[in-house]
Amino acid sequence: MLNTSPAFKENARRAMDDAGLQKALDRAKKPFAAVRAAAVARLPEFEALRETAKGIKNHTLAHLDFYLEHYAARVEAQGGAVHWCRTPEDARTAVLDICRKAGAKTVTKGKSMISEEIGLNEFLEKQGIEPVETDLGEYILQLRHEAPSHIIGPAFHLNREDWEESFRVAHTHLPADRVFHEKRDIQAEARAVLREKFTAADVGITGANFLIAETGTSVIVTNEGNGDLTQTLPRVHIVLASLEKLVPTVEDTLSLLRVLARSATGQEFSVYTTFSTGPKRADDLDGPGEYHVILLDNGRANMVGTEFQDMLRCIRCSACMNHCPVYLTVGGHAYGSMYSGPMGSVLTPALFGAEQAHLLPNASTFCGKCESVCPMKIPLTGMMRHWREREFERHLAPATARTGLGVWGFFVRRPALYRAATRAAAWGLGLAGRRRRGHFARLPLAGAWTRERDMPAPEGETFFARYGREQRGR
């Protein structure tokens, strides 16, 4: 759950000093961006698909109440049950009630960000129920008692030696000299342990990439097959999803799936794309006897009709994170939220309040790369700017920052005065800089910058003067 967003600056500073994390981030920076670019290049109609996907989600959000009711009716018609949960507490209670009725002692889980959002694992453990993460990355993090740092690559921040150490500490049956020579050795070790958990589980919990109103179906995509085992082997299947996962039809879902995998991992489709509709029927060979869908609001309904509604189009592909220079410098844990990167900088304040997470929208260079790669064309930088405005209005920013913006605002509304002031400042700083070898180690009102780096002294004319001269020359 959200825990350290107010400490983002301290978290980021520690992250940049963490040699192991920086090694992992450096290794992962290029592959995600490269495979996405290659996948997009192979699909000439990708840009048209983005526009289609955006339209599907906009239509759904405009008629969300209708599609929610229709979806719930279809789930119930198929023999399932829908649980409407306004808060994380409501969702946790609903899960616990289902588990207790099933007499569950062990619960397997397919990767679910909603379970992270509501703090489900810790809650179940306190109730005497063992939750077992079955995604390989999530499983490693559970052994390490760590939260995911990435949506699709939860162990994004770890190196190979971290994985091996985790197994040695948790899997006490391993001989001291065991070496994992290849990735498949790690996978085989995890598989041997998890197979027993799959067969012993009384309840399986998965997330949902999409919920189809037309059929009452939940859809999950994985590359390991753990989601299928989680929802078919136990007697009870629980789907944890938020309201905005609704999609009107199966055809709409297929359109969204075409942009999801390409944007996330550069695949045309994930290895496993699984559609689940209700509990097993009398003639089905396998499947759960009970099918429950827990629909979580947790502030999302309040986003509808606001300047943040577009964020509800997000399909959690993580493309924005994979291209964000800030995320790729500090990693996911620095954000102190289960949602990190540009999408987390918008969603976290919406779900948990600007007072708790007002630093996150400032964790952006506004380079716009996140918007350019988002398959749903979400205006992420614009929404981060809205949050910055609210931070300023609510006096959440430091007094020095608010005062500085106020002074800047006074001058910028008076163009002639602004140009005169910037010329004078540039001339004065340039003159002083020549006496300090072209840079300042300390500078009044710029302590946050000079504490970590030198401030270059201005050289030559101001931007406005240069721009005006260039224009006149043309």
UniProtKB/TrEMBL annotation:
Output the superkingdom of the source species. Bacteria
Task: Give yes or no: UniProt keyword Iron.
Answer: yes
Q: Which InterPro entries match?
A: 4Fe4S_Fe-S-bd, 4Fe4S_Fe_S_CS, FTHF_cligase-like_sf, LUD_dom, LutB/LldF, NagB/RpiA_transferase-like
Q: Which residues form the 4Fe-4S ferredoxin-type domain?
A: 305-333
UniProt keywords (A-Z) are: 4Fe-4S, Iron, Iron-sulfur, Metal-binding
Q: Is Oxidoreductase there in the keyword field?
A: no
The record ties this protein, via Pfam families, to: Fer4_8 (PF13183), LUD_dom (PF02589)
What SUPFAM superfamilies does this protein map onto? alpha-helical ferredoxin, NagB/RpiA/CoA transferase-like
* Entry protein name: Lactate utilization protein
What is the source species?
Acidiphilium iwatense
